[in-house]
Structures are given as C-alpha cells and as structure tokens.
Design a protein that fits this description.
It comes from Parasutterella secunda. The protein is of the alpha/beta class. It has helices at 2-13, 38-54, 69-77, 92-97, 133-142, 156-168, 180-188, 199-206, 257-271, 274-282, 292-308, and strands at residues 27-31, 58-62, 84-90, 109-125, 147-150, 173-176, 194-198, 213-218, 244-252, 287-290.
C-alpha cells in the first residue's frame, strides 16, 4: 500500500504538460484527393497499419477539389491538438502555397514524416502509335494540339508535362481532371493523347499479359531498375533532373511539442517495421521514410523549387 501511495503521489506531482501525450480518441486524417486516387490508396494503407500500433481509428477524410486547395485549407485551419493530421503532396502543396492570394502557407504545417517518394513517367495507351518518346515529341512539335491529361491545374503531373514540353520545345493542350485516377482513366478511354504520372500510379497498368498503358520516358537521372528498357528524359535530350512527388504526413502548425513528438515517433516506428514495408511492396509501393527534420528540409527545398522553377513553367 505504501508503494502504491508513493507511486500515485509521484504521478500527481508531475505536471500534466510533462506527461507523455497519447491519443484518447479517434484521429482524423485529411486527404485532399478523392477516394481511390494514388494519394488516397497510400494513405489508407498506412493508416490501417498505424491503427494497429496506436489502438485508435485513423479516419480518412477525403476533401477533394481545386487541385488540393480545399483539403489543405481545411488542414491548416484545423485545431492543432493532435487529433487532425493530414497528407500533403510535394511539390503540389508548395506550388499552390506560392500562388498569389494562396489560401495557405508553408509555415502553416508542422512536418511529421515522409511516407513515399515516387518518380514521374510519361505514358501513352498500350495501343498508341507512338512507340517511343522521341516519336511522341516529334508529333507534338509538328502539331500543338496533342492533349495531355493532368491531375489538376499546376498539380504535380501538370508540372511534369510542362517540364517535358518546355525542355522538348513543343506546345500541347493540358486537360485537368480531379486526380490521378481520373486523368489515367481519361487516357485509357482515348480522351487524351498522353499523360505524365508517377510510377506507382501506372505500375499495374503497364505490366501483365494485357497492359493498357506503355511508359515512354522517366523523369530521373538514371533508368528505373524495374523498367531498364525505358529511357530517361535526359538521355533523349529533354529535362535531365529527377522529378516526381513526395507524399508526407503533417500536422497543423502550432501543435504542442509532446503531441508532435508522439506522431513523429509513431510513424518512425510504423514506417520502419519490416511487416509494414512488405505490405507496401505487395501494394506496389516503396516506403521512403524521412523524419520530421528531414521532411522539413525537403519542404524547404520544394518551396524553393516552386518559386524558382515551377513558377516559370506556367
């Protein structure tokens, strides 16, 4: 009894602010794209696995629209208490944050962890007449009416198309859709001529006995290990740097230090779990974990990229 009384006295003597924070109720996770999109698929997989770690439900709130602005505006304005976190896509988030009269700023989020980093690719239908990126570019240079589906105005895949077009010296018609899933469906249905997307979004569509899409080029400085026959854009004389998208977990700025520490440690543990990595690989995803400090540096670099590179593409 004396030991119990002493333990209680010690616990009561510790200030509430010094006690480790853990969620006592379910957590909302804001995803700024529709259910079934590439971002949503990755987020749902991760949050399902995270639920097992924390013992609370991670409830996905899909708030699509305006190329991500609706969801991310809600995210930065949410109460910074640890019960609302969200997903951002880079560089789309920083691109939109740098627009005139932007609804949110980079400083309104607190980095937690990077989840995925995916390389961009150029794709056409599997039955397309263009067998190579050189052929597609040659056609585009002669005919500025080729149509390219994107995942939204100034969204990540639109930026990829701009990088290709400007480095290859051609014009095209960008056709925005509600997200990557929709833009790829438009390509599959023949509504557009080509698309730029991320490798994880197209992997299942370019493989198997009856592929529906074909990869023509990769936005990287070296060929992808899984697709050694697909050239990089740089090899062909076009954009010669890596370009793709990072998908990361953040909280509203102002979240208490102990709450932020909890989420950083939780996602570090989950994303480094071999079983979690295996589950992602089965889903065609490869984890690229970065902690809060590394993610913070990535966000800063993408903010610079948005101002110095992307701003000149539109």
């Amino acid at each position: 009894m004396k030991k119990l009384a002493l333990a209680l006295a010690v616990a009561m003597a510790i200030p509430l602010s010094a006690q480790a924070w853990t969620p006592e109720k379910d957590v909302n996770v804001i995803v700024a794209y529709k259910a079934g999109s590439g971002t949503d698929t990755g987020a749902r997989l991760l949050m399902t696995l995270t639920e097992k770690e924390i013992g609370k439900a991670m409830i996905i709130n899909n708030l699509p629209g305006a190329d991500g602005k609706i969801g991310w505006t809600r995210l930065v304005k949410s109460k910074a208490d640890g019960y609302t976190i969200g997903y951002i896509n880079l560089p789309t988030f920083t691109t939109l944050a740098n627009e005139k009269n932007a609804a949110f700023k980079v400083t309104q989020i607190a980095p937690i962890a990077n989840h995925l980093t995916e390389t961009g690719v150029v794709v056409v239908r599997a039955d397309s007449k263009w067998q190579s990126l050189k052929e597609l570019v040659a056609e585009a240079q002669k005919n500025d009416k080729l149509r390219c589906s994107t995942n939204g105005v100034k969204a990540s895949n639109h930026t990829a198309a701009q990088l290709l077009a400007q480095s290859a010296n051609f014009k095209y018609k960008a056709v925005p859709y509600g997200g990557t899933a929709d833009q790829l469906m438009a390509l599959r249905q023949g509504e557009v001529d080509f698309s730029c997307a991320k490798i994880a979004d197209v992997a299942k569509l370019v493989e198997g006995d009856k592929p529906v899409l074909r990869i023509l080029g990769v936005f990287d400085t070296k060929r992808l290990e899984a697709y050694p026959n697909v050239p990089t854009l740089g090899e062909l004389g076009y954009y010669d740097q890596w370009y793709g998208s990072a998908r990361a977990i953040v909280a509203p700025a102002g979240v208490p230090a102990d709450v932020l520490e909890y989420w950083v440690n939780t996602f570090k543990k989950v994303l480094n779990d071999p079983a979690v990595k295996e589950a992602h690989e089965k889903g065609g995803l490869t984890i690229d974990f970065k902690d809060d400090k590394q993610l913070g540096e990535l966000i800063k670099s993408q903010d610079v990229f948005a101002r110095e590179v992307i701003s000149k593409l539109y």
